[in-house]
UniProtKB/TrEMBL annotation:
Residues 415-434 are annotated as: Disordered. Residues 417-434 have a biased composition (Basic and acidic residues). Transmembrane segments: none annotated. It comes from Pseudarthrobacter psychrotolerans. Pfam families: PhoX. This is DUF839 domain-containing protein. InterPro entries: PhoX, TAT_signal.
């Protein structure tokens, strides 16, 4: 927990970009280029991307669609010239990916192969040069719907997760709806299975089906036509949906490793998970359930982290997420409700703040929820949490601890239903009815991160002050910030500034989504400065800030998603001109991509 220095990454904030603009906008003095795009070939012998003639076999060896969580980890002993890139592929936009004439069965097969995860090696000549990906590199891997994940923890082998195809209840094919994630202190990647419900047809009648949004309607992608497990009304597959909604752990340095799904971290619409080693040595994972009025969770490992780097230390650390305590957050404000509803003005005591507690769901291997077993708490975590009275939040996305201060930041992206008839109204921690623009909660644990008590305040209440929105930036003058709406993913630079990427600003403040730096400490605490803006109809994901190299990476997800194959709304990132012959590897269509921004 060192003092705060100035970052080497200095920039003049960009002006907000109109949501209709199909451009990737960076500050003066910076340039950008993709690191890898949808369809880029990953293995030796993989065919080049062919927009009009995609096959499932080719897509299975190419970079997938809608990359969200992304990290770049340097490979040791390569003098900074080699790294491994991880990206997940949350979902697909078939209507802009494929020609309308493509047979439906082919659309399903190629779309399925564009889901999952990718690991790809990167190289550069030296640390001042941008990265390029290495086709055919030894660590390259695609994780697909037939990749087997080992279920760890108390639910492994439980009757709740057994199916006809997996009587062991411990070997799960595929990962779905991967949204955000985190990189662990031991160098593995965590990824959250978020909107898995959209891939299944279910009876839709049980309490858990209803609580997880599982219905009997045909799914958008209709994979149930090809594989019986995607319709849980089929005999033998009743439990298939219980095998999704977990935190996944991947070792990007071992392409033969078996990825894991960690049942001890609970099952919900996981946005992601971010881990910190507490002073006690236990590791703590913070996790949001991204649904209106759902909850904030944390996991505390039973075992302690080993800082050594031997194979035995690493193997030990890679088991830390399979056993531990699970908690859900309850926030209490300290200002009268009447003063903070309606106008959204700052409370009488000058800040949105109060105290909180972590309510136990599983402690020391035992259920803390009356009437539910440990397995039931972990599989039906939403139902378990409902019983203990946590705070209904405005869609928790990334929840990330600062390694500089130990404080934890929670991105509440928005909640259009707060305060609507029959719905819970504003409280001090979710202070706006019909919350369009979202806010950021800052949590200070009492003691280390294993504590069950905390204090909290809001770092910011988002919006566009220049259009009269009532906003709050920890007291920083509202006329000196970049407008910001719908915070989603969080990252920190090397000196402890917070970086926020957004998803939904076009429908909030009418501006393109982007990436923003927020000063957390000193006189400029609360100052928001926009670093980049993404193209038309895209969201900004997976920010990585390598400020010592003056380089920033983001994932650009779903550019042009409201268009059609015949009427594309975005041409990012290739921007092939109309009528021009594309260069090799380029196409005239939007491609979700990982982008690097650097001086030059
Ligand atoms: Fe996939 Fe919560 O955003
Ligand atoms: Ca207060
Ligand atoms: Ca997200
Ligand atoms: Ca989002």
């Amino acid at each position: 927990k060192e003092g705060f220095a100035k970052s080497k990454l200095t920039f003049t904030p960009i002006a907000p970009v109109d949501a209709a603009v199909d451009a990737f906008t960076v500050p003066e003095g910076f340039t950008w280029q993709p690191v890898i795009r949808w369809g880029d070939p990953i293995f030796n012998g993989t065919p080049d991307f062919d927009l009009n003639n995609q096959t499932a076999a080719a897509q299975a060896q190419q970079f997938g669609y809608n990359n969200d969580y992304t990290d770049i980890v340097e490979i040791p002993d390569t003098k900074g010239r080699r790294a491994v890139l991880f990206a997940n592929h949350e979902y697909t936009n078939e209507s802009i990916m494929f020609p309308a004439t493509m047979p439906a069965a082919d659309v399903r097969a190629v779309g399925a192969a564009a889901h999952g995860l990718s690991v790809v090696e990167l190289e550069r000549k030296n640390i001042t040069k941008p990265w390029t990906y290495v086709k055919g590199a030894p660590l390259n891997r695609r994780y697909l719907n037939n990749t087997v994940y080992e279920l760890t923890g108390p639910v492994a082998g439980s009757a709740l997760v057994k199916t006809a195809a997996d009587p062991s209840g411990g070997k799960i094919k595929g990962t779905l709806g991967n949204c955000s994630g985190g990189t662990t202190p031991w160098g593995t990647i965590l990824s959250g299975e978020e909107n898995f419900n959209g891939y299944f047809v279910s009876p839709g009648t049980s309490a858990s089906d209803k609580r997880y949004g599982l219905t009997s309607k045909a799914t958008a992608r209709k994979w149930e036509l090809d594989d019986p497990r995607f319709d849980t009304r089929n005999a033998g597959y009743e439990n298939e949906t219980n095998r999704f909604g977990w935190i996944v752990e991947v070792d990007p340095f071992d392409p033969t490793s078996t990825p894991k799904k960690h049942s001890a971290l609970g099952r919900f619409k996981h946005e992601g998970a971010n881990v910190i080693v507490a002073d006690s040595g236990h590791v703590v994972a913070y996790m949001g359930d991204d649904e209106k009025f759902d909850y904030l969770y944390k996991f505390v490992s039973a075992e302690k982290y080993r800082p050594g780097t031997t194979a035995a230390d690493r193997a030990h650390n890679m088991n830390l997420l399979s056993a531990g305590n699970l908690y859900v957050a309850k926030f209490t404000g300290n200002s009268p409700l009447a003063e903070i509803t309606g106008t959204g003005a700052v409370p009488a005591d000058g800040s949105f703040d109060g105290t909180g507690e972590w309510l136990p769901l599983v402690v020391d291997g035992a259920s803390a929820v009356p009437g539910m077993s440990v397995e039931e708490v972990l599989v039906y975590t939403r139902l378990a949490a409902d019983k203990v009275g946590p705070t209904k939040m405005d869609r928790c996305e990334d929840v990330q601890p600062s390694l500089h201060t130990g404080k934890v930041y929670v991105a509440c992206t928005n909640n259009s239903d707060r305060g609507k008839p029959g719905k819970e109204g504003a409280t001090e921690v979710n202070p706006r009815n019909e919350n369009r623009d979202g806010h950021i909660v800052e949590i200070t644990e009492t003691g280390d991160q294993t504590s069950t008590n905390f204090t909290w305040n809001l770092l910011m209440v988002c919006g566009d002050p220049s259009t009269g929105d009532v906003t709050y930036f920890s007291g920083f003058p509202v006329d000196q910030v970049s407008p910001i709406s719908c915070p989603d993913n969080l990252a920190f630079d090397s000196v402890g500034n917070l970086w926020i990427s957004t998803d939904g600003a076009p429908s909030g403040i009418g501006k393109a989504d982007g990436l923003f730096k927020v000063t957390l400490e000193g006189a400029e605490r609360g100052k928001v400065e926009q670093f980049l803006a993404v193209p038309r109809e895209a969201e900004t994901c997976g920010p990585i800030v390598h400020d010592n190299e003056r380089t920033v990476f983001v994932s650009v997800q779903h550019p042009g998603e409201e268009g059609s194959f015949a009427d594309q709304h975005s041409f990012f990132p290739d921007y092939v001109a109309e009528g021009a012959t594309p260069a090799r590897g380029q196409v005239r269509a939007p491609r979700p991509s990982v982008v690097q921004v650097f001086r030059g």
